[in-house]
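Morning - 2'-monophosphoadenosine-5'-diphosphate inputs below, output right after.
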Amino acid sequence: MAKIDSSTKVLGLIGDPVSGSLSPRLQNRVIDRLGLNYRYFAFPVAEGDVKEAVVGAKGLGLKGLNVTVPHKKTVAEYVDSKSRAARITGSVNTITFAEEGEIEGDNTDWKGFLKSLELHGFDPRGKRCLVFGAGGAAAGVVYGLVRRGARRIVIVNRTESKGVELARKMEGLSPGVDLDVRPLTGSDIEKRIERSDLVLNATSVGMGATEGEAIWEGKSCFRSGQLVYDLIYNPSPTEFLKLAGDGGAETIDGLDMLILQGLESLKKWTGEEFESGELVDELRRCLRA
Ligand code: ATR
């Protein structure tokens, strides 16, 4: 580990809880690898303390913060400016304290997501996609797919109105994209999955209390030539990915996206340019250990 001295710059993560987060291990590993004089810490911040945490971090001269559950929406109120992605998704996962004193809010989830697809040789341009979920994680993914020119995106959510709201936020971003919303109980979901090139789980079903469950139980709809992605990385593979794999689909868990969105944040804070794809295998091994 590089030594900490009076010039060491501080980065961190705010969320509640943060004790299980992989981000400190991930970021400090890359910081060491690049020989940077930075350290990254996890700060547990309760719901009512978000403003104080952000203002305090600025006062102490931190360079940047990642933001995780449940503060990604709340924190958007306390930044001075927001990137287009943060504005449209309503979700800030990266705060940068600029030299001029401005607090900038950004969302790097969508970039990490697109890079993870690239690593797996999948180009969303012109593709038919189906996304389960309409929360913050789904917003990043759908934004990425819209920006990258997917042909069709079906949002499937338990609460249909939230899916409609998410689709509305994406309106006008890319005229060529056909956005559709279906409830989880829709009788046509099985068929729509079968017709999709990319099927993605952006709900929390499959982890925590729902470990062992899958957002979609059928397996005859999954097929070879299809990519099935679960944003969950613990457990891995999820039941959803097991079913998809049994059906012949190629599968990806959420670890690459976690790594790649983190690297996008680090690039922003440090101004360093590095090839993220080359680091992914090493970081995967380090985080799985
Ligand atoms: P995140 O920021 O991680 O996306 P979120 O915004 O709370 O978290 O979104 C969670 C997503 O998982 C939502 O799409 C939610 O569906 P609802 O909008 O209907 O709440 C979905 N989800 C969570 N538990 C679920 C369950 N048991 N069955 C189906 N969907 C579920």
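Note: The mean pLDDT is 96.

O.
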